[in-house]
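Pasting as-is:
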Amino acid sequence: MSTPHVGVAVTHKILHHKLPRLAPLLDGRTAPILSRQRVALGCSSNWAVILNDLTRQADQFESLESFQAALAGARRTKPLFRLRIHDTLLWCEAPDNVATHSGSARRSATGAGATGPSHENPVIWLHESRGTAVAVA
């Protein structure tokens, strides 16, 4: 980004707030993951990697979106859009992000130092914490 004192994280958070269905949340922890995937996939940008993920795994994201919409309906909250679900999964994959599972701190992506269940797939872990396991490859 070329605006002084406005980095990638601030830019994406503002864009996401204004256009949640179109703008992903990227920051210093998630952008490097997308950059590695961009090189591996031969994509032109981090946004292209996200588009690739969302289209290649459309059925899995549709299942997650439906599941989350049902939860939101039961709790009378707003459902998450597919892009926000992707943002959440990407954030869980980022190193050094600590999440809570049954009151125990654990590293989300690797299970390193985990005292709770260790899963390589953050989707399984996210849904297990709500009593439902959903596998997304």
